[in-house]
Amino acid sequence: MWPFNRRQGAKKSKSQAETDRAFELVAAYGKIIEKYPISFCDIDFLPSEKSELKKALKSVWAVSDSATRSHLGATYVLLFQFQLGVGDQPIHSDISGLDHSDPLQLVEALEPFLNWSQTTQNEQDELLAEWRDFETRAAEEGL
């Protein structure tokens, strides 16, 4: 179950309304990730713009316990899975219903997923670097 559906491990916040909104966005985003794990989805699947979700994830991190913080970092990086142009149907890597004795069928089934994986690698790397930088700055500030 997605761990951010409620204010788990939360401390005091500067603005309760902003914090509540951040928790709402993170919870809505988490439900999407649960529904479409290891999938590429169109950016329209997100409950808000990526930039707003990034801010929300950082805000929730700032008022969360250490166990929750590690999940938020992974969730931040998963934003790369949401891209403009994917379309109405998520692209996934599930090959469980295919004939595994036919390698060509498997490759063809995975091709769209692999193409999106290559296309999004730079964004994934950037998101990871952003999150690491955020954690470093937060540690320097004593958060």
What is the strand and helix layout of this fold?
Elements: H1 16-35, E1 39-42, H2 50-62, H3 66-77, E2 82-83, E3 91-92, H4 103-140
What is the topology, as strand order, of the major beta sheet?
2-1-3
Number of helices: 4
What would the principal axes of the Cα set say about the shape? elongated
Number of E-state strands: 3
Helix and strand sequence: HEHHEEH
Q: Round the mean pLDDT to the nearest integer and report it.
A: 88
Helix-residue proportion: 55-70%
Structural class: mainly alpha
Detail the poorly predicted runs: none
How far is the N terminus from the C terminus? Answer: 27 Å
Strand content: 5-15%
Count of all domains? 1
Profile the largest sheet: 3 strands, mixed
Q: Report the radius of gyration as a whole number of Å.
A: 17 Å
